Amino acid sequence: MRVRFGTDVLQDPAAERYLDWIMTRLDRGVHIWEIPDPDQMEASGWYQRVAREGNYIQLLMEKSAEMGAYPANRQIHSRCIVVGENGAPGREEENATFLPAEPAACYLDKPLSILVENKFSDGKFLKIILKAYGGDDFNEWYEQVDDQGLTYISGGGVTDLPNHIDDQMAKASEDGIPLRLVVLTDRDSDKPGGLSNQVGKVVACCKEHQIVYHVLIKRAIENYIPDETLEAWALQPSNHQSREKVETVLDMEPGERDFVDMKSAIERKIFKKIMEQPADLWTKDNLVLRDGAEELDQLVELILKEV
Predict the structure, then answer these.
(1) Fewer beta carbons below 10 Å: N end or C end of the chain?
(2) How far apart are alpha carbons 54 and 23 in whole angstroms?
């Protein structure tokens, strides 16, 4: 996210400890620092104290100015947090979130959480998608910050997701901060546009709490496995018993392939095993051929907006 310091916190000695904490996150590259008025920043007592302790703040300020020179090229950090209640000098804060210094430090310390049914399988799927579709900005950022910037959490399957959302909401409310959460769930339907009852409850819960969510268009993550990846897995000697089943799936019409139960059609642990295939089989080109509706582009864009 983009972080700006309001005029009030720069003049408030009681806020300095929280600005110091926020700076550790900015220094790690988790968020970026926007400074509309460098002169006012340098004149503040907080800045002068930190500058006396070392030159890191000046170097970070120069880096922030360089990044701010090319905002149109950024794919991430579209959200803005203004620390304080009076706004940052010299610029309109459109769609910005204003937080006092203490809750802002708490909020900016938390990574974006992506809630999925199973953080091991679904989390790996999302890591593949984000790497393939996320672009240079995201991939450089994620390589640098890893789970300090984005993390995957899960409950006890789709039936537990509403409870998990309620728990996350309660924790955020207790901390006095907005909830940083994206929810991803399978469709769990054998036909286009359908939703299982449990997925419908997840959607209703997300809408009630105004949480960003995405329901996969296809049945489940297994239905997005590229043909090339399936073929390579089936050709391995240890998987010869599944070759005929894989060929049957590959021969299906796209509509049927999108909603077939892959665990039943091939084997229950198919996704876990296929995840072990080399990374060059999970290219964007291969994934696009399975995607079709540009859904994965939209999913990645949804997540990157929240980073």
Answers:
(1) N
(2) 13
